[in-house]
């Protein structure tokens, strides 16, 4: 009997363990079932409200995601939404994300965000400066003409007959090229900047972000111009300095007219402004050397010396910069800890900061034009 009792107790322990395991599995199943039931209830409540109250959310089927991305990002044209709410495609995407989050569909949220980011990156690779989709991938039709616009555009009439050695006469072709965005005139450059600014404003970009974009553009203008000045003897003259100063003043005036002068964009022009002044000041006495050193704070010692070495007199009455004067400059500036880099980094990018700017637009009031072809979206 004792042997039989031990056997039965052993079997009882085994059965008790199995019961506990089954109970745990049943509890887990009940939790999952409750979660599914809750999601179904939320879904049913959402469907009931579709035709009654619009709460600023949009529902779409998972299989329509590619169509949604194609309509709002890949194939969108600025002109098709220019007369609507600024940033309408972004609002529509946000309303879709809100609904996916509302029904606790994490995978749908992740998929939509990932697809949107990848589509935007793809569009940016083939986007031309005017905001339309054209041109080969990696093409850059905008930056390089800036050099000619800043250094060779003769926008001051009095300089028409004053040319330095080897100066190329391109004024006639530049003056007639007034329509294209890659024109070599100063006014063409300003028109291009205005076009960029208009596109950003029309799309509702935050003013602080607009200022950061313009700052990056002005850095490119300064870097390309200064680097070319440091590499070309034919433009290192008094007349070029006068022209450069006038051109930079026109860019500063453009910043003021567009309420962008308080941004950091104007500061990026300081090196080329000082280079223009260096070309114009007297370069003879020790007092001139001290004045140059106190003036050219945004230029490195290497850049100052390089410009002085390349400086070319306009005529036989103007003297060249003497070696002793350049050595005087070097001795005065020898305590500077400038980096040993002559040319500016044209590919340098400033970090972009996106400020939090709450929208005053009520999502319930957003109207989606039928022309976009988004009839597969359901207002929730």
Automatic annotation (TrEMBL):
SMART domains from the UniProt entry: DIL
Pfam families: DIL
Annotated coiled-coil segments of the chain: none
InterPro entries: Dilute_dom, Vascular_dev_regulator
Name of the protein in its database record: Dilute domain-containing protein
GO molecular function term, any single one: GTPase binding
Source domain of life: Eukaryota
Species: Poecilia latipinna
Annotated Dilute domain residues: 114-335
Spans through the membrane: none
């Amino acid at each position: 009997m004792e042997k039989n009792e031990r056997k039965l107790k052993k079997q009882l322990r085994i059965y008790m363990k199995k019961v506990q395991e089954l109970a745990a599995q049943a509890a887990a199943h009940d939790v999952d079932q409750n979660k599914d039931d809750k999601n179904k209830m939320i879904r049913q409540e959402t469907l009931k409200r579709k035709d009654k109250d619009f709460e600023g959310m949009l529902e779409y089927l998972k299989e329509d995601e590619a169509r949604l991305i194609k309509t709002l990002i890949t194939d969108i044209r600025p002109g098709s939404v220019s007369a609507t709410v600024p940033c309408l495609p972004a609002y529509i995407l946000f309303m879709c994300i809100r609904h996916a989050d509302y029904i606790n569909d994490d995978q749908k949220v992740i998929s939509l965000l990932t697809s949107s980011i990848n589509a935007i990156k793809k569009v940016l690779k083939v986007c031309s400066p005017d905001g339309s989709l054209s041109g080969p991938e990696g093409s850059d039709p905008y930056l390089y003409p800036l050099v000619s616009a800043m250094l060779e555009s003769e926008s001051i009439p009095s300089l028409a007959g004053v040319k330095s050695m080897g100066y190329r006469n391109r004024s006639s072709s530049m003056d007639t090229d007034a329509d294209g965005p890659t024109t070599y005139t100063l006014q063409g450059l300003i028109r291009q900047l205005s076009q960029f600014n208009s596109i950003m404003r029309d799309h509702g970009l935050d003013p602080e972000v607009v200022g950061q974009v313009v700052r990056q553009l002005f850095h490119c203008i300064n870097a390309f111009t200064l680097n070319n000045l440091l590499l070309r003897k034919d433009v290192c003259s008094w007349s070029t300095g006068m022209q450069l100063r006038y051109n930079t003043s026109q860019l500063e005036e453009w910043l003021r007219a567009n309420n962008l002068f308080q941004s950091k964009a104007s500061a990026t022009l300081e090196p080329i402004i000082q280079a223009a002044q260096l070309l114009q000041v007297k370069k003879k006495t020790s007092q001139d050397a001290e004045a140059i050193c106190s003036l050219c704070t945004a230029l490195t010692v290497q850049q100052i010396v390089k410009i002085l070495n390349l400086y070319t007199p306009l005529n036989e009455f103007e003297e060249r910069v003497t070696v002793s004067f350049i050595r005087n400059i070097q001795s005065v500036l020898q305590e500077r800890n400038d980096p040993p880099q002559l040319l500016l980094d044209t590919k340098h990018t400033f970090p972009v900061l996106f400020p939090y700017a709450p929208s005053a637009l009520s999502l319930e009031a957003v109207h989606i034009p039928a022309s976009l072809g988004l009839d597969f979206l359901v207002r929730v």
